[in-house]
Request: fold
Amino acid sequence: MRSSSWTRRSITLALGMTVASTSAVAAAEQFVVIDETWTHSPDLADSHKRFDPSVSTPGNWVSPIDYSQGTAYVYLEVHTKPTAQETKFQEDSPDKRPFSRDREVVRTSFSTRSWRWGGCR
Reply:
């Protein structure tokens, strides 16, 4: 259940996500999936925000290059927060599976977080 301060406030976030293949054939192949800035406001339906992948994202993540066994790098930047209350953030794959088991916690009003996951599949 969200607190009343959460429902009356907004959070501005910037998100960047890059996927890199770790296969021997294309160890340096990378692409940006999402590069967005948005305000997460109280009128946003539910607690989720979905972004379509960028046009540079391959339609097939398995062939000819197998990105599904690569690593996803995420950079999250919180520009503003109305309170010191913890904010939780988690990315999901296109088939709705989370990339991580735990949600990343952002505690300060301006902060950055970077992390990565191996085996995006």
Q: What stands out?
A: Confidence is low (pLDDT under 50) at residues 1-14, 23-27. The helical segments are 4-7. The first strand starts at residue 11 and ends at 20.
